[in-house]
Write a structure and sequence with these properties.
five-stranded mixed β-sheet; 5 strands; globular; 5 helices; 40% helix; single chain
């Protein structure tokens, strides 16, 4: 599989979030060419501010590998990680993060701040941006357009 194939898998996760009326972000973790973890946002469903796709994928990968060190693992995520998730990338020792689209509001890998390149930590995570950017961006735009329309009409989320 190539990086677009992996990002397509992350997009499948983002679509699962979309169906659940969650912000459609998906993440997968790859080790040695195999997907070892998949997750999508579940903040609304779980009523928890830390249930971001990246955090949930890291938890699953740690459990699968029976370690907190995700050495030689890469993450593919449809939206640029926030500061919390970027910290989790560093702390879990992810090798590289592949980002679908930028997050101009809370992105911590270059859009707002860059915790991976501007700050020196004990572990360095490589970054590659704009993998299937258009597809990742379109799903988010569609979600927020629908959310604005529902809010304008006084509708509530299902969950």
């Amino acid at each position: 599989m190539n990086k677009n194939d992996y990002m397509k898998e992350a997009l499948k996760e983002a679509n699962k979030a979309y169906i659940k009326e969650e912000v459609p972000v998906g993440a997968i973790i790859v080790k040695d060419g195999n997907i070892i973890a998949k997750a999508h946002n579940l903040k609304e469903t779980k009523k928890s501010s830390i249930c971001h796709a990246e955090i949930l994928a890291i938890q699953k990968a740690c459990k699968k590998l029976d370690t907190w060190r995700l050495i030689n693992c890469d993450m593919y995520v449809t939206l640029e990680p926030c500061p919390m998730c970027t910290g989790a990338l560093i702390n879990s020792r992810i090798r590289k993060v592949y980002i679908g689209t930028n997050d101009k509001k809370t992105g911590a890998c270059g859009s707002k701040i860059n915790l991976l390149e501007d700050v020196v930590f004990n572990h360095k995570v490589e970054i590659e941006r704009e993998i299937m950017q258009q597809e990742c961006e379109q799903l988010l735009k569609k979600f927020f357009k629908n959310l604005r329309e529902r809010n304008k009409n006084g509708e509530k989320r299902n969950n």
